[in-house]
Amino acid sequence: MLSAMRIFIKVVELGSFSKAAEVLNMAPSSVARNIDNLEQDFNAVLLKRSTRQLLLTEAGEQFLTGARKLVSDEESLKASLSQQELQPEGVLRISVFEGFGRVKVCPILPGFLAQYPKVKIEIDLDNQLVDLHSENIDIAIRIGSPADSSLHARMLMTNQTSLCASPTYLAQFGSPKKPDDLLQHNCLLLDRDRQRTYWHFHKAKQYKKVPVQGNLTSRGGTPILEAAIHHGGIVLLSSWMMDDLIQDGSLVRCLPEWTPSLSEQSSGDIYALYSGGKHMRPVIRAFIDYLVKALKL
C-alpha cells in the first residue's frame, strides 16, 4: 500500500504518468495500474485524467495529504530504528551463574555502561536455570549449549577446571600423589542434585573416577573456594575462578599431570544464550561482543 502511495505522490508532483514512470523506472501501465488499485481500494476517484493534464479531485487532495503523512511517518520510523541500531539503549536483563558473574561479568559492567550511557543493566547472579521468555531475561550465561531450540548460543570460553588447595592445607595433610589419594582428603563439593559426587581424571589413555567426600557442599563455587583458601580442603572448580589465586600463592594446583573435570567427558563450554537471532536488540549484541572481547584480554 505504501509503495502505491509513493507512486501516487510522484504522479501528482510530476503531473504525468509517463514522467513518474520514467523517474521510478517503471512501465507507464504499471503506474496506471497502481493508481487504479488505490481508487478501487478506497472506493474514490483520486485523479481526473485528460489528454493534457491530471487534476486532483477533492478526494484526491485529501488522499494526498494522508499519503504524504504515512510515507513521512514510515521514513521517520526507519530513521529511528536505524539510530537505535547505531546506539544501543534501554534496559538489559542478564542472568549469570554466580561464580562467573562475580569473577568475569560484574567487573566489566562499569566499562560497558560508560561506553553506552543510554543502557541500564539488571543482573541476577543465580545458579538455577531460568526461562528467558517467562522471566523476561535478555541474556543468560550458562555452562553448556541450550536444550531449548528456540534460543541462540554464542560460546564465550572453554570451561577448564583445576584441582587446588592452600599450601597450609597441603603442608598439614600432604599432597595427593594420585587421584585415589583424594579418598583420604576432605574434598569441597559442588552440589550435584545430592547424588554421590565423583571427580574425573584423564592422563593420556588413563582415566580415573574417584568417589570424593567432604564436610562442605555448596550449589555455587564461592563458599567452597573460600573454604579452600582458608585451608579447609581440596577443591575442583573452574580455572578462571582460581587462576589469580594460584598466581599469588593462595592456592596450589594438585595432581598437575592429570586433567581433572566434574563430569566424565569435560566441564563444558560457557555460552551466552539469547533469543531473537538476526533481529536481536542492538544492546544484546553490543554486550555479548563487549564480553567476548573482554574475556580474550
From TrEMBL:
GO terms for molecular function: DNA binding; DNA-binding transcription factor activity. Residues 1-57 form the HTH lysR-type domain. Gene3D superfamilies: 3.40.190.290, Winged helix-like DNA-binding domain superfamily/Winged helix DNA-binding domain (1.10.10.10). Keywords: DNA-binding, Transcription, Transcription regulation. The keyword Cytoplasm does not apply. PANTHER family: HTH-TYPE TRANSCRIPTIONAL ACTIVATOR TTDR-RELATED (PTHR30537:SF5), HTH-TYPE TRANSCRIPTIONAL REGULATOR (PTHR30537). This is Transcriptional regulator, LysR family. It comes from Shewanella halifaxensis (strain HAW-EB4).
